[in-house]
Structures are given as structure tokens and as C-alpha cells.
Amino acid sequence: MKKIVNFIIFSAVLVMLTNFEAKTQILDRQGVIDSLTTMDPQIVQYFPRWKVCEPDLLVQIYQSFLYHGYPESNLSREDIQILAAPREFDYDPFEILMINCGSESMNATEIEATFSDVLVGFLAGNLFYSGMLRGEPNDFARRDYCFTDLPTQAPITPSQADIITDYLDRPTNVDHAFTLSLFEQGMKIGETGFWLRSIMGTDQVGYHFWSAGESKILLQRPLYINTDRETSKGIPYLINAHLGGGYRLSSGLANNNSLLSWVADRTLNAGPGGKLVFGTDVHAWFHPAFGIGLNVELPMQDIGTQTIDFGSYGKMENFDRAVQFDPSDPRPYDITHTVPLLRATGQFTAFYHWWLDKKNPENYFRFDFGINYTEVREAALYIEPTEIGPITKITNEGVDGLMTYKPNDVADWMFFKVSYRSQAAFPFGASIQMSNQVFLARIFIPLFGDWFYLEGKYSTIMRDPRPFEIQNFFMFSPVIRLTI
User: Fold this and answer.
1) Cβ-count burial of 407 within 10 angstroms (0-12 exposed, 13-18 middle, 19+ buried)?
2) For labeling, which of 172, 376, 385, 473 is most exposed (least CB within 10 Å)?
3) Which is it for the CA torsion 92, 98, 99, 103, positive or negative?
4) 3-state secondary structure of 265
5) Which residues pair with 260 in a beta bridge?
6) Has residue 319 got a pLDDT over 90?
7) How far apart are CA 259 and CA 265, in angstroms?
8) Which residues 6+ apart lie within 8 Å of 166 measured at CB?
9) Rounded Cα distance, 84 and 36, in Å
10) 3 state SS of 24
11) Is pLDDT of 388 > 80?
12) Could you tell me if 153 and 414 are in contact, meaning their C-beta atoms sit under 8 angstroms apart?
């Protein structure tokens, strides 16, 4: 009998200990979740996180923080992040563990006491933001509002905006990127840091889109890795170089392109033979935000005398016959037109990268200041009769009266550019530039999410325009931006 009583007592104690251990495990799990609210970067970095960019939700969350007494100076309407527990299945909604607004945060308990079930349902994917309830359990839980997933295995910071020096054209925070617009097409080739770019126009001298009469294909190659831990995220390489070639465009002439017939016609051309394009940015090892840049575009062939297609060159009529063959030249032809050709261009600049707050790197500036060289030469156009019919030629040999346009005033030599980019919930950017006494402004804004943008460029001549220049030239383009 005593053994039976002892067995019953032992069993009861065992059951109590088992229940206590189970409860302890539950409490421990809850303690782990509670510990996440302290934002320990060693733990939080492995959990799902995303940044909200839906305007209505941003306002609601911001106002909730403000209403519950959080300091307004610590809050940011554009920097709102969600931390959630991992899901077992794709069709499970998220369990919201933390909401960050600027540098302030609420843990799960505070969220439950502060936010409505509907708002939490939207954020977690339990409710469609459009207002519909989720259907069958095999329906995938969705967050159908604007958001951007944040990478795991990276410590969380007060702002998850990456330190990017070129958000739209050449982002530094992704392995693969693809950009497509009328102005430029670019592709990043994996983790190599290589960029392959196709560019229309010569923005460096103020002649954007087809107003320059030329395009170029470039390969940008990183040459020296930045080992400085504080700046390597935004500036991964201390030296970048690009090498490529320029070629002549036939687009942009009168009645040449009906789809873009509303865009101003051009007169300027790239010369025959193409160009060699080379450039580099060299960052100072002692202060990588500062550096010097060089860009050179050199014609690979003299103008000489070339046979051309009359309709593929921009030209100006030689009304007063001021341009004519030298009396010693044996060619007995009339020069009917002059053809302006964009020749050598180049810039040598000093630049500086500046983030208003590196801990919250959403507002970025780049300043460039230096010298510019732009050269445009005229060639004479004449028609030569032959046995097979008339042929059109251009030449700068044995001709009097041809003009060469090079820097004359100090202002012609000056190059100045300021670029600004906001990398918050709604990334946009703008820049202004003065080069060759041409003012060039650029802006890009998001239209849909983080992949579809609208970009516009406007230039105006700040001196008396030359015969081949467009006084005011505006062009815009949709931009598709895909990153992995």
C-alpha cells in the first residue's frame, strides 16, 4: 500500500513538473518575443521586415504615435517600418511584433492597445487593404498596400534607407539592376560591380536626348574596393572607370520621327568615325566622400571629306554663300549647306558626397565643380554629280568661312552640378547643372511603387544661342527600374 501511495505522489509531482516545464517554455517563448521589442540587432536581423509606403497607412500610423504622446521631433511620416514573426506557411498572416516610426517604436503589447484590429489586419495581411476579407485558408495572405521588403541578416537601424549614391541610374545596394528609359538603358552584372550602359545625348555639356546627335555605349568597371567600414556601403569602390564608344544618331531631324514629332528638331550632329569615351571617378582614401572625376570624349577620325546620306545629317542653309571653297581648291561646286559637328568634349571636376544624416540617410547631395571643354566644328556640304547620280559630301578641307565653336569666356569653361536624392518611402531626385553656359535640370519621381518612374530633362541656353543650339529643350520619359 505504501508503494502505491508513493507511486501516486511521484506521478503527481512528475505531472506538476511537466506542466511547469511546458508553461516555462511558453513563458520563455513569450520572453523571446518580448526581447525582440528591444530591437537587439543580433536577433531582429533574421525576422521579416518591411517599410510602408502607402500614403493613407503612413498617415494613420504617424498620427497614432503622435496621439499617444511620442515626441514629434523623433517621428517620421516617411520612415515607418514593420517587424513581424516568421510565418510557417505562405498563406498565414504575419504576426506584428513591432512598428517603428522614425526613431520611436511600439512593441506587440503597445500595438494591441493602440492600433485598431482593422489597421493591424491590413499591415499583417489578414485583411486586404481594399477592404475584402481573406478567403479560403489556401489563399495566400497578401499585403496589398505599398511596401518595400527589407533584407534579412542586416542589423536594423533607425532608418532602413540604404546609403545609395545613385538611386535611379546606378544603385549600389543591389546585386542586379536593370533600368530602361528613352534617356538611358543600364544593366548591373551581378556582384562584379560592372555596369553596361547605353546613353542618348551628352548631358555633360547640356545637350541631352537627341539634341547632341550622338549616343554612346559604356562599360563601367570598379578598380579599387573601399575598405572603410563607415563609407563602403554607399561608396563600395574608391576608383570607378568607364570605357566605351560614341556613335552618330540620325533621329531627331525634321519629320524624322512621327512618334516624337512634338519634340524640338535638332541640327547638331556627331561626326563620322565615332568617338572614344573614357572617364573615371577617384575617391580620396582618407575621406571617400571627396574625390575627383574625369570624362573625355574624343573623335576617332578627322572630318576630312566624307560621303554622307543627305537626309541623315542636320544642316544649315548657306544663304549668303559666306562659306565657299578656297580659290586654290579645284572643286567647282556650290556649298549649299553647313553641317555642325560635335567634336571633343571633356570635364575635370572635384566632387563631394553629403548625407544630411548618415544614421538616417534619406537625403543625399552630390556637388561637382570643375572645368568643361566643348568643341563644335562646321563642315561644308556640297553635291557632286557622278555617272551614277549625284552624291552628297561634307568637307572641312580647302573651305573658307567655316566656324569653330570653342570656349571663349570664363563661363564657357565652368562646370557646376548639384544633385539631390530622397531615398525615403517615395524616392525621387533632382539635379541642376551649368556647363558650356547651358543650364540643364533633371527630375525623376515615382509613379507606381518602386519600379515605374517618370523622368524629365529641361535645358536652356544662358548666352546667345549658336545656330545649331535649341534655345529651350524639354523631354520626358517613363523609366522602368528593376532590382534584385
Assistant:
1) middle
2) 385
3) negative
4) coil
5) none
6) no
7) 13
8) 172, 421
9) 10
10) helix
11) yes
12) no
Strand partners, 346: 296, 373
d(CA 291, CA 391): 50
- Phi, psi dihedral angles at 43 (to 5 degrees): -105, -45
Retrieve residue 7's grid coordinates.
Answer: 507511486
Residue 176, Cβ neighbours under 10 Å: how many?
Answer: 12
Its sign, for the CA torsion 409, 407, 210, 352, is: negative
Cell of 63: 498620427
Whether residue 34 contacts residue 28, with contact meaning beta carbons closer than 8 Å, is answered with no
Question: What are the cell numbers at 178?
Answer: 536593370
Query: pLDDT digits over 74-123, tens only?
Result: 898 888 999 988 877 767 788 898 999 988 889 888 898 889 888 998 89
Please give the grid coordinates belonging to residue 415.
562646370
C-alpha distances in Å from residue 74, one per residue of 37, 105, 163, 390, 406: 18, 10, 20, 76, 53
Question: How buried is 365 (Cβ within 10 angstroms: 0-12 exposed, 13-18 middle, 19+ buried)?
Answer: middle
Using alpha carbons only, how large is the chain's radius of gyration in Å? 32
Q: CA 42, CA 33: separation in Å to the nearest integer?
A: 14
Among 58, 34, 41, CA closest to 122: 58
Predicted structure pTM score: 0.70
* Whole-number Å distance between alpha carbons of 423 and 229: 21
For residue 335, what are the β-bridge partners? 382
Q: 162 with 423: CB under 8 angstroms?
A: yes
- Cell representation of residue 51: 517599410
